[in-house]
Amino acid sequence: MNRTLRAVLALLTSVAALLGLTTAFAGTAGAAHPPAGQTTRYTMTAFTNSSESNMYVYDSPDATGFTLRKGPAYTPPSGLIRDPSIFKHTDGFYYLTYTTNWTGNTIGFARSTDRVNWTFLYNHTIPISGLTRTWAPEWFIDTDGSVNVIVSLTAASTATHFTAHKITATNSALTAWSAPTQLAGIGPNNIDTFVVKVGSTYHAFTKNETTKYIEYATASSFTGPYTKQKTGDWAGFGDWVEGPALVQLDNGGWRIYYDGYRAGKYWYSDSYDNFATWSTPTEVPGLSGFIRHATVLKETVSGGVTLPTNTTRSLQSVNFPSRYAVVRSDNLGYIDPVTSSSSTAVKQSATFTVVPGLADANCYSFRDSAGRYLRHWDYRIRFDSSNGTAVFNKDATYCARPGATAGSVSLESYNYPGRYLRHYGYALRVDLYQNTDTYRADSSFTVVSPWA
Fold first, then answer.
1. Does the pLDDT of residue 187 top 90, yes or no?
2. Could you tell me which CATH number the domain at 38-302 has?
3. pTM confidence score
4. Residue limits of the Alpha-L-arabinofuranosidase B arabinose-binding domain (predicted)?
């Protein structure tokens, strides 16, 4: 974040606090990373440029760097598996719904115990006379526990005039469904509608099939009427984009994934102000140009990386094991050589107290012997005394992820998900995740006994 924008955000945060308001920059109230012994897992299901009949499954601890778990993971007995949407039901099974064909009146369903091995269940016929296309089904689980599928329907002879409808499961086995109900206010000619509920408001993201932009609408009821809030290139996502899918991050922000199908790119962007503004779109590392129309399921599972708190430790570089994270006299962070014959001052510069994260106690902050905290500023690592602001606390908080080698750790920025503490030219920074072995090694550290 540049310094001017950072100052503006800090000022607005302070003003809001004085007025007793919840600031947009604070994320969603109560959002936090899982406690020790648990971790967040994001599972992505997608079809690919190489096949519309095969689904691939990936997962990630951070919603940024995804690892292939199985591909192909599921091929239906006939037809396509475009637009696969995943959720986990109360019965413990994972369920898919998906587009079965370019034309027709059915959507498909499959089930899995482990997210990677899937069993075909059935194709469900949407009971509307004259349907020519039933595309892009998406799960939506409402706060009342109802299980719904949002599906884009048209009876036109060409792929136009789509409107969004919902069907609701009428039994817990998900084998019986209500008649379709249109989501009023979305359409005509809107497709790929994805809905999330925040508080009492339903937020819909949908592709305008005429303009090729992702639009945004809100309603107080799931079935509407929805009011279009934003149209055109309101969020900077560009045109000829489709398949929006949202997931909430552990720090309270929201991430949208979408398919830049004309350019052959796959993007994500983050929002922290109730969907009003979005970060500069970033390609999904390693998957952009390969996956198509994905959805992402967030779960809390056992595992994760735990660091000892209220103890002193040193951070040893994985790919330069003779070098350790240090603070130099210019207050900036580097990785420097440290040995048993180094001076007391050098050893002290490589020793930090690991404490619960200032912004989230389930993450971590690192304090040097002078009481200063390891924090980022313009993406550069420096050591500063706390000024007690929310901005500082977030800058100085890092969430532990598995590192590149056994026993190592990577430290993700709390307020810039997808950016990790890494060295570049021996200087410490927070840089965007890259799907390369070099980046993974540069951003991995072994937490070892303190030098001082």
1. no
2. 2.115.10.20
3. 0.92
4. 314-447
